[in-house]
Write a structure and sequence with these properties.
By secondary structure, the chain is α/β, with parallel strands linked by helices. The chain is built from 5 helices and 8 strands. It is 36% helix and 23% strand.
Length: 164
């Protein structure tokens, strides 16, 4: 009996991870976002207006977040030269833990620190990873809760559409 339950639970988890998609945002206005990166440099989302920005909320203890990071990096690199940015917001973890993670999974986009989770609450990032795609107009257009393949054709098409 336990074996059957385990198999069903495993299938449900695999199915739910497979079904994550970029969905239209219906959550209202874009909340403010102004946070420091690992070196202390301030990043304000308002300063990125005119670019498409992917805001990703993550944590080192979140397995889907860790698995998704290389996909985010490859998408960013494939869109170099276009007005596309990735801002990854870590949820209230110590700097040493984030730096240790980055040693193993290097990324070239800014890793921002939401030290008290105020920003993640304002963005309603209740499930990790939580990703929001902001258009050149500064509005959130798409959202995804859970690990997403950022290089998949449907996802790239939506990002490229916003870059037009």
């Amino acid at each position: 009996m336990a074996r059957v339950f385990f198999s069903i639970a495993l299938a449900a988890v695999a199915f739910s991870a497979w079904c994550v998609e970029l969905k239209p945002w219906e959550g209202g206005a874009t909340p403010p976002l102004a946070l420091d990166d690992l070196s202390g440099k301030r990043h304000d989302l308002a300063e990125y207006k005119g670019s498409v920005v992917l805001v990703n909320f993550w944590a080192t203890w979140c397995e889907p977040c860790r698995a998704e990071m290389p996909s985010l990096e490859r998408l960013r690199k494939s869109l170099q030269g276009k007005r596309f940015e990735v801002l990854a917001v870590n949820l209230a973890e110590p700097l040493s833990r984030i730096e240790k993670f980055v040693d193993g999974v290097p990324v070239s986009f800014p890793l921002l620190r939401d030290r008290d989770s105020t920003t993640s609450k304002a963005w309603k990032a209740k499930l990790l990873p939580a990703s929001y795609v902001i258009g050149r107009d500064g509005r959130i257009h798409y959202v995804a809760y859970g690990e997403l393949d950022w290089e998949s054709a449907p996802v790239r098409a939506k990002v490229l559409e916003l870059l037009q």
